[in-house]
């Protein structure tokens, strides 16, 4: 294929993707404006071929990463001894968190059957880490305000506990867990405590600076030993950019991997990946320096004003209700009067892409600067779709509504899990 045909074909394929530029999508992409996108594109392309595997060969990448980590640590309450690394995303940051906590407990307390305490809203990457690293997950329930139950966490601690986790905020409901209380328990029992701020780490500090009431959540809280924050979310970097920050270098050492006996040479790696794309590291440095504090504050103000307009509009629709009291720009809503999954289907017909959640059934939204201009059209369509679903009554549901409705009704999730595995297999096959 010619260059022109290759690029034309790709553009045609991309035309079928979710519409994020116009604010019609409520997840996956964090768009802060064309000027920001242009900066990260140019920075990414400039270092696209460089490999972060070797900071000796590419000292530019070493400096970019070190400065990104230092800026992030400063933003998130880290002291002069704070240390960390960049990773490919929130999942890798959380994997590294669990691995480091396991190794620390093994070295300091000789723990051989490690466990970690997780709120039921903790990101599934922790469950993935449990599977990969053989760390038993111990789940605790939520309080009525949808935040982690501190009393349950205290009761769950035992001699095998290597890690306790809190979210800032939790993805499902957008609320910050009681980090100060949970971290105090961890400090008393000498276990690692991680704040998963992958979603909120690059927004909460600025929202707090704007005067919003944000619970304490970062490395300034006694007992917090590490925190993760994704730059490719509300940091607006190119995809493949997250951070994991530890209180000090001694804790970070437990994350590293070294193999001394390979004929190919000494192999030392700071995180899960070997090859590390230089473009993602460079673009993260570029966008943080381009926006600076002034830019992040400006975007945070836009986001919070927009989020509150949306939440207030949803509260005014009698058939709908928000879940909990969200602390920032991420929230979910459901209904006691109609099928919210079918409501999601109706909204999708009008071009709005809302994520579905379960336990309880709800629709999920993450607000970005791209949503500033579409509040009224969205709320107008939402009101109309509520009436459409109400009028449909017991009409059989379709699409994702049928899938989620069936899954949530099953007490035995085994068959549903097999269906999801089959679905993944089908998705990864070549073809249309």
What does this protein structure show overall?
Strand 8 and strand 9 form a beta hairpin. The strands form three sheets. The chain has a seven-stranded mixed sheet with strand order 1-7-6-5-4-2-3, sandwiched between helices. Strands 10-11-13-12 form a four-stranded antiparallel sheet. It has 14 helices and 13 strands. The protein is 44% helix and 13% strand. It has 432 residues and is of the alpha/beta class.
Number of β-strand runs: 13
- Report the sheet with the most strands, covering strand number, pairing sense and barrel closure: 7 strands, mixed
Query: How do the SSEs run, as a string of H and E?
Result: HHHEHEHEHEHEHEEHEEHEEHEEHHH
Subunit arrangement of the protein: single chain
Radius of gyration: 22 Å
Strand percentage, roughly?
Answer: 5-15%
Strand order of the largest sheet: 1-7-6-5-4-2-3
Structural class: alpha/beta
Overall spatial form: globular
Poorly predicted parts: none
Helix count? 14
**What is the end-to-end distance?**
19 Å
Average predicted local confidence, pLDDT: 94
Measured as a percent range, the helix fraction is 40-55%
